């Protein structure tokens, strides 16, 4: 377990910023506690400082996971975001969805065309049971 | 009035004495057990006062600690004292409490090769005397070790054996044989150690030149030779066209696990600010490299222009001059 280097932090922030933009600083600097990112076995975990200090007592090979896994770094050092980060990204999201058309097409299309597909995560059916009829 | 004050003074003195005594004497239901060798006092009284104290037992705990410490100090004052360099020192008795092990029990080591062999053959170590009578020196000498009884390297007269070359140095031969025995012993000791710790000895596979070594073996031997200096190869010069070895950089160093959280947060926020500023930040290294490259290109272009001009100038005046000039310039340019 170790903190991220400058390069790794930059790569990870660039990825996350694509989803939540400037609200990322609300993840870094929280009013209700000190949270930090730690790297363990190529996976990035978002964990409160208290829990991280407890996890430091477990030896590295026996430690499976701590806090919330945000994603992992691949062998070529690209950052892949995982679904487990959704709970932290959703409150700050700027609109989740999959693009239906490319950026160029989006500009030329008529006002009623579908541009983004909203894909629900597995819990959305349960969460929004009332509103989804 | 005076009688009153004298009586009062006496009463006050008596009260002071009683208070001092009260401070020194402590009443306990069960006596404490003392181990003065370890400066230990064990209190087996049930801590009812502390339990019934309520949410803040600090005052009661402190009082309890004070009482027990007072009793311990009382015991210490009863020990025999002595003077050590102008300081009065109490001599502590032997400690009676047995402290637990500091480190874990050592795990059993694997047997050495000799021990395995001896166990197999049923050989038991024979008890031998350490000292042997040495006729030559007329005294008792060790069986082995420093100034041993029969040390064949220390003989002053050695007869040349029957079939040996008369020009051979027999003394040097014996010293060499002893060195080889010592080296073999050391090697076996290291092998036993490596087996005990489950590691491997660094193999000297390609180190002895045989004449039939592969390229990889030679490369490995060369690397080992390079690093086998006092500075671990740091100041070894390379041959003119030799390439630098790969993977010889420093091991990566990471930030400590819980360093300064505030500093970490600050650096991350700074990084975010730079990312969000939408202005391209000046990367100093790339800028300087670009500048240097541009300067080099300018220099090269200037040199080429000068040589072109020189060629044109030396062209018109005569064939010979032209040829000479051309060859000269050509040589220069090629260089």
From TrEMBL, chain A:
It comes from the Eukaryota. Pfam families: pre-PUA_NIP7. Gene3D superfamilies: 3.10.450.220. Residues 1-83 form the 60S ribosome subunit biogenesis protein NIP7 pre-PUA domain. This is Nucleolar pre-rRNA processing protein NIP7. It comes from Equus caballus (Horse). The gene is NIP7.
Automatic annotation (TrEMBL), chain B:
Pfam families: RRS1. It is found in: Nucleus. Signal peptide: none annotated. Residues 235-245 have a biased composition (Basic and acidic residues). Keywords: Nucleus, Ribosome biogenesis. The keyword Nucleus applies. GO terms for molecular function: 5S rRNA binding. Residues 321-335 have a biased composition (Basic residues). GO terms for biological process: endonucleolytic cleavage in ITS1 to separate SSU-rRNA from 5.8S rRNA and LSU-rRNA from tricistronic rRNA transcript (SSU-rRNA, 5.8S rRNA, LSU-rRNA); mitotic metaphase chromosome alignment; protein localization to nucleolus; regulation of signal transduction by p53 class mediator; ribosomal large subunit assembly; ribosomal large subunit biogenesis. Residues 229-255, 272-335 are annotated as: Disordered. GO terms for cellular component: condensed nuclear chromosome; nucleolus; nucleoplasm; preribosome, large subunit precursor. Belongs to the RRS1 family. Involved in ribosomal large subunit assembly. This is Ribosome biogenesis regulatory protein. It comes from Equus caballus (Horse).
């Amino acid at each position: 377990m170790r903190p991220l280097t400058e390069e790794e932090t930059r790569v990870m922030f660039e990825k996350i910023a694509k989803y939540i933009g400037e609200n990322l600083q609300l993840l870094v600097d929280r009013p209700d506690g000190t949270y930090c990112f730690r790297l363990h076995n190529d996976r990035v975990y978002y964990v409160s400082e208290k829990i991280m200090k407890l996890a430091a007592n477990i030896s590295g090979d026996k430690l499976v996971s701590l806090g919330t896994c945000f994603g992992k770094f691949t062998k070529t050092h690209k950052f892949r975001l995982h679904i487990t980060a959704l709970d932290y990204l959703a409150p700050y999201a700027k609109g989740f969805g999959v693009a239906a058309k490319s950026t160029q097409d989006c500009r030329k299309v008529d006002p009623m065309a579908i541009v983004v597909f909203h894909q629900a995560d597995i819990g959305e059916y349960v969460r929004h049971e009332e509103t989804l009829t | 009035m005076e009688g009153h004050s004298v009586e009062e003074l006496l009463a006050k003195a008596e009260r002071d004495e009683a208070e001092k005594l009260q401070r020194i004497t402590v009443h306990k239901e069960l006596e404490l057990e003392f181990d003065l060798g370890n400066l230990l006092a064990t209190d087996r009284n049930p801590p009812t006062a502390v339990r019934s104290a309520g949410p803040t037992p600090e005052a009661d705990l402190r009082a309890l600690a004070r009482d027990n410490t007072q009793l311990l100090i009382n015991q210490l004052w009863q020990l025999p004292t002595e003077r050590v360099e102008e300081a009065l020192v109490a001599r502590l008795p032997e400690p009676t409490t047995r402290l637990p092990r500091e480190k874990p029990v050592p795990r059993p080591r694997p047997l050495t090769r000799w021990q395995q062999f001896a166990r197999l053959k049923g050989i038991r170590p024979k008890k031998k005397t350490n000292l042997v009578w040495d006729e030559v020196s007329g005294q008792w000498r060790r069986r082995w070790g420093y100034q041993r009884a029969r040390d064949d390297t220390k003989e002053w007269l050695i007869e040349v054996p029957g079939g040996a070359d008369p020009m051979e140095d027999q003394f040097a031969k014996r010293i060499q044989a002893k060195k080889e025995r010592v080296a073999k012993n050391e090697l076996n000791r290291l092998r036993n150690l490596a087996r005990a710790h489950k590691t491997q000895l660094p193999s000297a596979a390609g180190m002895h030149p045989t004449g039939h070594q592969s390229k990889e073996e030679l490369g490995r031997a060369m690397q080992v030779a390079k690093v086998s200096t006092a500075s671990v190869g740091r100041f070894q010069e390379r041959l003119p066209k030799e390439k630098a070895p790969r993977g010889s950089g420093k091991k990566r160093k990471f930030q400590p696990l819980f360093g300064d959280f505030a500093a970490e947060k600050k650096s991350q926020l700074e990084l975010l600010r730079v990312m969000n500023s939408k202005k391209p930040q000046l990367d100093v290294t790339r800028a300087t490299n670009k500048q240097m490259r541009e300067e080099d290109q300018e220099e090269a272009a200037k040199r080429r222009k000068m040589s072109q001009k020189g060629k044109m100038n030396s062209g018109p005046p005569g064939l010979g001059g032209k040829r000479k000039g051309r060859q000269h310039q050509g040589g220069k340019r090629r260089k």
